[in-house]
Amino acid sequence: MGAIVGKNTMVTFGANNRRILGMGTWRLTGVTTDMIEVSEFCVDFKEWLCGLKDGGEVSFNGYLNRSCTSQLALMDVAQDCDCVTSIRFHLSCVSTAGGYFYPMTITPFTRSCIRITSWEVSADKTGLVSISFTGKVTGLMDYHT
Known about the structure:
Layout: E1 10-13, E2 18-19, E3 23-28, E4 32-37, E5 48-54, E6 57-63, H1 69-80, E7 87-90, E8 100-103, E9 113-122, E10 130-138, E11 141-144
Antiparallel strand pairs: 1-2, 1-7, 3-6, 4-5, 6-10, 7-8, 8-11, 9-10
């Protein structure tokens, strides 16, 4: 697979994976692991074990569109601190050009999700009004081709 041009990225949300109008910029930090030091006295080097994993964070932004029900729904999700599973971060808006990242269901008892932690609207008298969302990932984001 060659390089991917980011100009056609998009974010979709909801049961029908509808495109969130105006959203084309996103960032996913990925998994980090807590490291636990277990060194004993009289050793020259520290010894480490892997602890709990952190699913990372996701942020996405674009232009505010008052007719976009998905943007309004995500604002409500943030207010209620709901767990979002039906969100996709696409590498391309052309389905044949790339895949997407999504919260992965591991087993019926463990599922990944994103909790929207904040949203922000920003306006400037010389430009379009923008909106941004930030979320915390619980579990694992998977990649689907």
